[in-house]
Amino acid sequence: MAQSARERARPRLPRVPALAVLAHHLVGYRRTWRAGLFSSFLLPVLTVLGFGVGVGAYVDQGIDGVSYLDWIVPGLIASTALQTAVSESTWPVFGNFQWVRTYFAQSAAPLRVSDILGGHLAFVVFRAVTTVAAFLLVTALLGALRSPWALVALPVTALLGLAVAAPTFAYASVVSVDSWLAMLLRFAVIPMTLFAGVFFPVESLPLALRWLAYATPLWHGVDLCRAAALGVAPQWSVVGHLLYLAAWAVGGWLLARHAFRRRLVV
Residues 214, 202: contact at Cβ < 8 Å? Predict the structure, then answer.
């Protein structure tokens, strides 16, 4: 009877164990969310004013028939989701293996590798979507959104965040020192942000660089967000964009699950 009482008192995992992992990250975020207020609200204001208003003052004719401010905001929305997803998928993942070793503690509990990975990825998507929601709110208050379809950017950036975060999880789980994470930002994230259609049309690039831009997940997210925010058709097929981002997400998930299993399963 005493044993059965202890079993009843023991907390049970939810039917979807990954939700327990997500709850763990949300509890931690509840104590640190204030530190993100600057990046979630003030940085969008500074970025919109600096690029959209400041640089836009020198772009007299706008781009594609719209003002530079209206044109650049959707690209900034997508790049914000990208940068948030990468920042939450590099040092936090590396630290959970190398420093605080949270993943090893979770694997000692009745959690599978897919639960640990899925719960943390869900938190990263949550962070990307909430950051984009704050960006949308700020830009709407500044009058920089032309269409209510801009709300479609929320599910688009959720998929973009997952497409970027999943392969980044795989990368962060196999590198030996954290300097490799800084190299990822320097040689992948920054060039992608600069040349994937956020600040100027990809069509102005040389052909080789143009196809490199098309290969990045960010360009597909930018094209979808821009089409939604401006109320126009995207340059490429909507289904094609979504399938391409989904392929990045699935491929990254498989790589990350394999890397996590090698580290956590003895």
Answer: yes
Report the C-alpha dihedral over residues 88, 52, 195, 245, rounded to 10 degrees. Answer: 50
Place of tokens 């000692």: 108
Exposure class string for 69-103: b at 16+ Cβ within 10 A, else e = bbbbbbbbbbbbbbbbbbbbbbebbbebbbeeebb
Taking the C-alpha atoms of residue 69 and residue 71, their distance in angstroms, rounded to an integer, is 5
pTM value?
0.90
Q: Cα(244)–Cα(229) distance, rounded to whole angstroms?
A: 21
Q: 2-54, pLDDT tens digit by residue? A: 444 444 444 565 678 999 999 999 999 998 888 777 766 777 778 777 876 77
Cα(209)–Cα(196) distance, integer angstroms: 9
Residue the block writes with tokens 């909507």: 238
